[in-house]
């Protein structure tokens, strides 16, 4: 394949870091949930995965890549399933942007049609749901200061900032011509007001993945265990219970409506079972987990609506925008039900 990066420059950098010698071979692109460049290759008998921002850099691409590498480095030796960091380059040279190398993951992402034996086993699927929750319970147990992540986020008043932060984001979509406005989303104002009135009085900071659901994990081929949590670009220091809320917001209800699609769905646990499982692996107070569920619906719905607003202005594919708007509506309908 024609590589989107300068392979010779990468080889030179790796040699300087003591990461093998000779040519880089068997380069192939890996699919991912973002526009980042993800390549797998072999050098000197060892396999690597490279992650770099997209060719057309966004405003925060470089800093995002540095943050990803930092959190993976901090998680080394923990019981959080994650890609092992091999080396990172925080500078623009030699590849035009920061990047890092990590160990390949032996696993699969469950979106779409499950492989065997997972597809036919209700027991394995039930275990997959439990393992998904175990991953963030383990992440929430990590002492972020002890692993060098002090200053990685802004945990003070984290919950107090949330509704205004996302309300402002939604209001900003009005600058995009053709967007019908926030009134196209059910109960958006009343949900925001409910969140402000019922906000938990206390919050214990910890490491958050920031976009935790079935699309951003990989499972082992031989059973239900997590192979790795991936796509750490939104990681921060905040309230880890929002990661659990994110799982609940994306989890199918009885009508199977969901922002993720996994088939067949024959044994995955209920949302209540997920919360009970998290409680086993965490000493965090879950008495307000419904609030986090609503906040996750609110935040994710607003994020999805952003693509619809850009589509209305001709800046994103219309069919994608319409589909994501439908999902945003579903999320706000769910949040409205939860607040009643």
Question: What is the structure about, briefly put?
Answer:
By secondary structure, the protein is of the alpha+beta class. It has nine helices and eleven strands. α5 (188-197) runs antiparallel to α8.
Could you characterize what this model shows?
The longest helix has 24 residues, at 289-312. The strands form 4 sheets. This protein has a 5-stranded antiparallel sheet with strand order 1-2-3-5-4, sandwiched between helices. It has a two-stranded parallel ribbon with strand order 6-11. It has a two-stranded antiparallel sheet with strand order 7-10. Helix content is 40%, strand content 14%. It has 9 helices and 11 strands. The protein starts with 6 loop residues before the first helix and ends with a helix. The chain has helices at 7-16, 61-75, 122-141, 158-172, 188-197, 241-250, 271-281, 289-312, 318-338; strands at residues 24-29, 37-43, 46-52, 85-89, 99-102, 112-113, 206-208, 217-219, 226-229, 236-238, 262-263. The protein is globular, with a radius of gyration of 21 Å. By secondary structure, the protein is an alpha+beta fold.
